[in-house]
Amino acid sequence: MNKNDNKEIFNFLIKNTFFTILILDFFAVIALFISKTYFEKEEVNNHAIGVSPLLIHFILGLLLFLYFFIATLPVYLNLVETIRNKARYRFLSFFLIPVILFVTILYLKNFDVTVVLISTACLLLYINYYYRFRRFIKKDSL
Known about the structure:
The protein is mostly helical. The chain has one domain. It is 81% helix and 0% strand. It has 5 helices and no strands. The two termini are 13 Å apart.
């Protein structure tokens, strides 16, 4: 594998990671709107503890962005040829961290319906990303 092939793979990963994070941030906005309606419906008095609801939503947005960013980082392990060429390692580099994070969030939220739907949509997005990468690798190896 020469340097140009790694550069093509890196460009593919950068472009697709950017679009994946962009779509995942759309899911984060949906989650924030759902949580906003939850705070309004349950009449949680955040001012009593000195924290504004806007600050809580800002912190939640940052945490969701960090969550999605960390979930997409292991795909860059595919720049290493041994990981990229073995299907098991390639699969784990795409799905190990996101699945661990999704299961953790689902466990912490007691399998809330909205969290399950958003997590499923995110997982489907990762599956799409994985199959596009497999097609790219097969096309590149021909």
